[in-house]
From TrEMBL:
SUPFAM superfamilies: PK beta-barrel domain-like
Residue numbers spanned by region Disordered: 1-21
The protein, known as: MOSC domain-containing protein
InterPro entries reported in the protein's UniProt record: MoCF_Sase_C, MOSC_domain, Pyrv_Knase-like_insert_dom_sf
The MOSC domain, residue ranges: 26-175
PANTHER family, A to Z: METAL-SULFUR CLUSTER BIOSYNTHESIS PROTEINS YUAD-RELATED (PTHR36930), MOSC DOMAIN-CONTAINING PROTEIN (PTHR36930:SF1)
Single GO molecular function: molybdenum ion binding
Length: 187
């Protein structure tokens, strides 16, 4: 997307939610973010962790994975590698366009639409269910850089600090944290 001056702008491309713990989430016209809770009506919303594998480890753990973001540019890249992936199919709540999600530092805040703000908590670690969705996809979403660093492309996670409604076409504005910019780890 571009603004009136031709400058590239970041925007919400799609939103998704599902009340069931399913791998993919259906797209919807809009979602409502609730402070400290997540996406209203989504199985992963809650003050404590709702992800099945994390609940087993510690059901009292704070939910740092309330909102899942995925860049639409990744879907473009995957199409070039022979995969067909659409918004919501990898379980994300918000699909973005025009924003380097993986380059954001820990604690960055994304202002979505008129009111909502999500604080970024880390990267999603790709899980083996991805290969059940499309065989071989997992290898495309996790790899190793030349310097030996693991590269994860399964999206980033965050917590809702200010609630609000989010819909396709809403602008996304980034507020970087004050002080040292720390890279994202896995949550």
């Amino acid at each position: 997307m571009q603004d009136a001056t031709g400058t590239a702008t970041a925007a919400v491309e799609s939103v998704s939610r599902d009340s069931r713990h399913a791998f993919s989430k259906p797209t919807v016209p809009e979602i409502r973010l609730i402070k400290g809770f997540g996406v209203e009506g989504d199985a992963h919303a809650g003050a404590t962790t709702q992800h099945r594998y994390l609940v087993v480890k510690d059901p009292t753990r704070p939910n740092l994975t309330q909102v899942h973001f995925m860049p639409a540019e990744l879907f473009d890249e995957l199409r070039g590698a022979g995969f067909e992936v659409s918004p919501g199919e990898l379980g994300e709540n918000i699909t973005t366009r025009g924003l380097d999600l993986f380059g954001l530092p820990l604690g960055a805040r994304l202002r979505l639409g008129a009111d909502a703000v999500v604080k970024i908590t880390g990267m999603r670690n790709p899980c083996s269910l991805i290969n059940g969705f499309q065989k071989g996809l997992m290898k495309t979403l996790i790899g190793t850089a030349e310097d030996g660093q693991v590269i994860r492309k399964a999206g980033i996670m965050g917590i809702v600090v200010t609630g609000g409604t989010v819909a396709p076409g809403d602008p996304i504005r980034v507020q970087l944290p004050v002080g040292e910019q720390r890279p994202l780890g896995v949550v």
